[in-house]
Amino acid sequence: MAEERPPRLVDYFVIAGLAGNGAPIPEETRVPEPSGPLRPPRPAEPITDMAVIARALGEEVPQGYTCIQSSAGGHPLELSAGLLGGTQPVICYRRGRDKPPLVELGVLYEGKERPKPGFQVLDTTPYSHSANLAPPGPGHPRTYLTCRRAAEGAGLHALGITDVCLVLPSKGEGTPHTYCRLPRNLNPGVWGPAVYLCYKVGLAKAHTLVYEAELLGRYPEEDNEAFPLPESVPVFCLPMGATVECWPAHTKYPVPVFSTFVLTGAAGDKVYGAALQFYEAFPRARLSERQARALGLLSAVERGRALGGRAVRSRRAIAVLSRWPAFPAFRAFLTFLYRYSVSGPHRLPLEAHISHFIHNVPFPSPQRPRILVQMSPYDNLLLCQPVSSPLPLSGASFLQLLQSLGPELAITLLLAVLTEHKLLVHSLRPDLLTSVCEALVSMIFPLHWQCPYIPLCPLVLADVLSAPVPFIVGIHSSYFDLHDPPADVICVDLDTNTLFQTEEKKPLSPRTLPRRPYKVLLATLTNLYQQLDQTYTGPEEEASLEFLLTDYEAVCGRRARLEREVQGAFLRFMACLLKGYRDFLRPLTQAPSEGVRDVDNLFFLQGFLKSRERSSHKLYCQLLRTQMFSQFIEECSFGSARHAALEFFDSCVDKVLDAEKPEPTPLVELEELSGSELTVFITPPEEPAAPEGSDSTPQYCYDGFPELRAELFESPREQPGALPVPGPSRSAPSSPAPRRTKQEMKVAQRMAQKSAAVPELWARCLLGHCYGLWFLCLPAYVRSAPSRVQALHTAYQVLRQMESRKVVLPDEVCYRVLMQLCSHYGQPVLSVRVMLEMRRAGIVPNTITYGYYNKAVLESKWLSGTPGGRLRWAKLRNVVLGAAQFRQPLKERREALSPTVLLCPAVIEALGVLEPRGSPVPWHDGSLSDLSLTGEELAPGGSLEDSGSALGAQSTEALEGPSGRASKASGRQDEASTPRRGLGARLQQLLTPSRRSPASHVPPPELPPDLPPPTRRSPMDSLLRPRERPGSTASEVASWGGGSQLWGSQRGGGILLSSCSSCRACDSLVYDEEIMAGWAPDDSNLNTICPFCACPFVPLLSVQTLDSRPRCPKQGQCFRAVPRRVEGGAWAYLSPLVLRKELESLVENEGSEVLALPELPAAHPIIFWNLLWYFQRLRLPNILPCLVLASLFIEHLSASVQVRLLWDVLTPDPSSCPPLYVLWRIHSECGVWPSLDLLESVLRHVGLNEVHKAVGLLLETLGPGIYREILFLTMAALGKDHVDIVAFDKKYKSAFNKLASSMGKEELRQRRAQMPTPKAIDCRKCFGAPLEC
Fold first, then answer.
1. Are 948 and 956 in contact (CB under 8 A)?
2. At a CB cut-off of 8 Å and minimum separation 6, what does 343 contact?
3. GO MF annotations for this entry (predicted)?
4. Separation CA 1168–CA 1127 (nearest Å)
């Protein structure tokens, strides 16, 4: 598969501003004034000086100063409260541009605090008297004004104080909008009202024309089909318009302003933009006389005379657009381009850097977690992969939200967003608006804001503030220089940390929040707010290469930790706010009707409200009526693209339900950055090579940002074999139903680790993953089935079988896949039954499963007809079933009086370890694991009485044809006509083989010509002398291990599978249940632990494929179906956890259709043979054996595949002693019966409940593995269906303890006579019937 090309970091580069080409500016492009109440025009100059005069001392207001004589509400002011001896102080200010403006004011109480650094204390009046504002008298601290001035050379566009006022709270006056109020009272005395000073910070500019921005240039010129360039981009690049301004001639250019914005598409997808605004020279020739007069370029007295000492400048912007909120990287790139345009000359054009960055800088991915981009020898930026989190990716900065608003105001805004109020966020820093607004809509996760949302609103769209719907809008604070905010809007000033609201639209009090979650949230935010100052580093430091390579991880790691902690605090609050909501969801259980998607039909609102605190009912009443809550319930009920995020929120709810823990569990886990991660270096674009003999002189020099020239852009370099990725997340070809979310994988991993410590739970955990594997293959099985509806009902029966076996499911994929298939094939009733089965099992469906269920019920076509008829048929069915249940005890009583059954219990009790009392005759369900390997079990003619096919009984009949069904029917009839013999008689006959008639034996089958015939040597030699290794025994064992006698009558193929593996360290054979017990609870670990030497090794799954079709005979011979080995091999035997991960990856990349392709065994042999092993082990119907037929090019309709799962190895070691059960079979199939005293003695001791004697007997003659020798010999002699392995284990354990008292446990362990561990025994017991041997 070709390597995929990573997604780009940047998709578009644009230039916005006034259209060039030297044409005059049309008047109609001027931005109209937004509607709304107007304010007086803003002042043209900032405040540069403050002073205090004492009127009682005869001081006058200095020239050029303005005196504040009344409060903001028009009330008269008297700071000394008319006391005798008071100086009657008055505050004055002066405007101008002769010095840097004031940027901050303060109030100092002398003796109680020290002046802040950089502040000047106004302790004297201009006339050298005391400037104390407090009234005279003891106990009153001397009160002075303080101020801080902007730095020298700040320029025309430096922020400064534009207005001051005084407010009297006792007169009902509040802080004016966009003003900052000082916390110190100017009248700290006992007498007189409290007086507070307020000031406003802004830009004081005059002679400005504002026009709507236009698109001046873009790259690339063609739109991307998946992501076209929005037409409104220029307006958002310059939200306050493209301005033309008149400055004094020698004014310095201001520092470029960085801003960010977010555009939301019709489908809810977001596009992130970043712009850099700067000023350039503007030609006067493009201005009309009217425009020049408005800018102050013409004299107002002498018409037409131009004024000197003026310069005209215009504002432009360069911007990038992306689907990723990598704002710091965008800022560094745009700043580099601006510096490049104002410096020079250069050898490379500006267009080369733009195209190089767009085409060659990818977004970080797991393969490229860190990308260091070197734009020039002095400019670098580092990109890091975002933290893997189920939370949606956004441009939110919770740190800036908390730092700008504080804990109390942040919680107030959370309450306002939850109740869908109109929010207007404004600031003088446009880059702060987007990050704070994104945090506001992200803090209410999992709710999604459904109303208008404009983080940075352009001036031309300011009419949205009058909309009659809730909204969240961010706007530049200069908008309020001329306009008052609407009365029904909550205004948040990020620069002054204040909130302005009217009484009629005031949000609810935080006291209406749930008490305990509110207290926890407030305490957490307060603690984090105090830690913010320790994580700040300046932008100059972050731009250095040394910082990027050394301290970046540490500093950014601290910031990321605090960011996640703040986000986690809001997430925990929302989880507490909505906890238990899933209990009130109303699933659809009948045919849908009109209004089925209404929230009242999907959610029990009143029940949810009654389950909350009474003090919070007012909040919940407003919350339940919001659009975002209705959308949330609909997403939970019918699924959405946010299903992974909603499932993660459900896990957070489960964590907060346990409120008794002293330390809460973290909800958002932050992955630490590793210093060993791969860093990809991207070099600058290559400079053109200079011709030989000539100097490479720079040729590109710019006077401002140039117009883009298409011929100077670099063409993109296509990577060979790379595939384009259309978006941030490529959609897989398969359906999302079989996939597990990351949260489900984490939960499954934790469950596996917890279950590994308990033997029984570990076995059930493995079993649950095995069923999950089968349901992953269910779509392919249903598509290949003759009756798809019947296949769905078969899957439903498998679900019920899982419940009866008490399977521990790690997730809900089993139910989810079946529900999705019910929806696809129009079976809503079956989907309802699956949901009821799920509830019966005690499983609460998560968001993904619940959504698939409701979609199946809603979108499927229901059968038409009266429900009364179906109800009567259901009643009749219940009556018939009830009558059958009443007859069952009578039938059991008649069977108890049967003489055949009366003879069995005594024999069974005498045997002790054989079949328990009342065990029924083995039933034949089409499973190969029920076959016995003794010669007596074969039906007449050499065919198996009930050969199981991997396709189940129904598929086997379809493949075998009429002849196969007829042979089965005759086999069952013979079985019914022959009375069952007692087990005691059977054992007696087996122990005295010389009394048997030679005619009753099945003659040994003819071996294929390509297999060597076994040598006729007595195996007694190897039994009596175990140290001698005769070579003939291996050939005999190999011929019998291939099971050739079982394939003589089959027109198809045979498959032998065995998981028995040899440990590489100690050469011990480790069997299936011991391998399962040694697996680690890790979905990436292939090793198991040897139970004998505790060394890890990779177990192997051995496979042999035989073709038993009739071959073309030679002349004079008849057709014979002789097994012929086609292929064999061994592949890694995978844990169900590992296999599931690999299967999910295969389905994710190639789709579920690959599981039904004939190329699967050859393309993915490890996955195929492991799936076949587990499905046959659990007797689950599947189509995998059919793929073996297709891979062998067997096209006969009557062909079938017989699959056998063996306990022991397929190819024994030629140098080892053959197992006892093999010798028993060899001699039982031969006509000669030598005296096997050892085998008969072992079986006799086992039958007489003297297992310790059998162990002692074998310890003297055999090597390691006595437990397996005795068990396999007993199963071979009696048949596995007649041996109770649980009882055998108890007897063997008792015998082992008895021998350990005399020989010692260590001696027995060294000779490997111990039985399997409890973990291995539980695995064997949990996986059902034992394997064949």
1. yes
2. none
3. guanyl-nucleotide exchange factor activity
4. 15
Among positive and negative, which fits the CA dihedral 868, 871, 877, 879?
negative
Average model confidence (pLDDT) for the chain? 75
User: CB under 8 Å, gap of 24 or more: what pairs does 819-823 form?
Assistant: 819/737, 819/849, 819/852, 819/853, 819/856, 820/735, 820/737, 820/852, 820/856, 821/778, 821/779, 821/782, 821/792, 821/795, 822/792, 822/856, 822/860, 823/852, 823/855, 823/856, 823/859, 823/860
In whole angstroms, how far apart are CA 262 and each of 139, 431, 1266? Answer: 55, 11, 73
- The residue among 882, 891, 822 whose CA lies nearest residue 857 is 822
Residue 323 CA: distances (Å) to CA of 229, 723, 726, 904: 12, 19, 11, 76
Hey, what are 447's tokens?
């709710």
Length of the chain: 1333
Largest distance between two CA atoms of the chain: 143
Residue 40's φ and ψ, nearest 5 degrees, are -60, 155
CA distance 600 to 860: 22
Beta strands in 661-741 (DSSP E): 679-682
Contacts by residues 1193-1196 (CB-CB < 8 Å, ≥ 24 positions apart): 1194/1052, 1194/1053, 1194/1107, 1194/1109, 1196/1051, 1196/1052, 1196/1109
Residue 543 near residue 418 (C-beta atoms within 8 A): no
**Cα–Cα distance, 246 to 207 (Å, whole number):** 6
- Residue 780 in this model has a pLDDT that exceeds 60: yes
Element (H, E) at 567: helix 552-577
pLDDT band at 697 (very low <50, low <70, confident <90, very high): low
CA–CA distance, 993 with 986 (Å, rounded to integer): 11
Closest CA to 276 of 318, 245, 234, 236: 318
Of 498-512, 931-945, 984-998, least confident by mean pLDDT is: 931-945
- Interatomic CA distance for residues 1327 and 199, integer angstroms: 78
Residue 519: the pLDDT is 92
Angstrom CA distances, 894 to 883, 891, 898, 916, 983, stand at 17, 5, 7, 20, 22
This prediction has a pTM of 0.72
Contacts of 464 (CB under 8 A, 6+ apart): 452, 454, 457, 471, 473
pLDDT in tens, 209-253: 888 888 999 998 888 877 788 888 999 999 888 888 888 777 778
Q: Do residues 1202 and 1046 touch, judged by C-beta distance below 8 A?
A: yes
Residue 752's CB is within 10 A of a number of other CB atoms, namely: 25
> Any alpha helices (H) in 182-288, and if so which ranges?
233-237
Q: What is the pLDDT of residues 974-1017, one digit of tens each?
A: 433 333 334 344 444 444 433 333 333 333 333 343 434 443 33
pLDDT of residue 1003: 39
* Cβ atoms of 381 and 333 closer than 8 Å: yes
What sign does the CA torsion over 929, 934, 938, 941 have? Answer: positive
Position of tokens 């706010």?
Answer: 577
- 748 vs 727, more confident: 748
